[in-house]
Amino acid sequence: MSGRAEIHHEHRDVNGGWLRPSVFGAMDGLVSNFALIAGVAGGTSNTKVIGLAGIAGLAAGAFSMAGGEYVSVASQKELAQAEIQVEARELARHPEAELDELTQSFTDQGVEPALAAEVARQLSRDPRQALEVHARNELGVEPGKLPSPVLAAVSSFLSFSVGAALPLLPYVFGAVSLWVPAVVSCVALFTAGAVVSAVTARSWWYSGLRQLVVGVVAAGLTFGLGNLIGASGL
Q: What's the pLDDT at 17?
């Protein structure tokens, strides 16, 4: 057995990267539109009405998701930019105090004081690099890598639309029973949940079953509500 320590390994992206928002956006569209279609189907057997409700749910949800994501990310970015500007002003006005602050942050992480002071001094020689280091340490962001509101909005719109389209497509192709879109939705729910396991510590079958149960319960409740309303003649 070799006594050499491991010198290379890779970690999964704990932030989820593109996978997390895409998959969760698709699942949101799938669950919400499946539940909406089931609710309408519980109240009427008119496939045109059910299909129209599904289309409306897809459009409304996708635009709402895109708009909400754009405003949310834009606000987050603007706040980060404002705080970065505050840090830039402090670096310009009080460079020594900021150097001491950076030194202390390294010391707090266990670096010896003399070494911490030298590292902080070297990192602070370049004003741009100093700002990046302070922003990472104090704000948890990188000035040149702030999220794009437009990209977030487009990604949310597309992923939600894909998920919401799945329970709707059977009606577009002539389905007359809820069972067909229900089967399609259940398969998609399990698959999406299994894919999520790529960014979690859960097994693929556990994540798949969990998402399937959540979607089926939501659809079942709205179907029952729609059936109750339809039976009452409202």
A: 47
Among 48, 1, 56, 27, CA closest to 208: 27
> 47-93 and 149-165 helices cross at what angle (nearest 10)?
160
Contacts of 17 (CB under 8 A, 6+ apart): 199
DSSP result, 23-86: HHHHHHHHHHHHHHHHHHHHH---HHHHHHHHHHHHHHHHHHHHHHHHHHHHHHHHHHHHHHHH
Return the structure tokens found at 151.
């990209």
pLDDT digits (tens, 9 = 90+) for 176-190: 899 999 999 999 999
Block residue for tokens 């069972």: 179
Quote the pLDDT of residue 1. Answer: 46
Q: What is the pLDDT of residues 76-92, one digit of tens each?
A: 999 999 999 999 999 99
Vertex 94 angle, CA 90 and 99, to 5°: 95
Which of helix, strand or coil describes residue 224?
Answer: helix
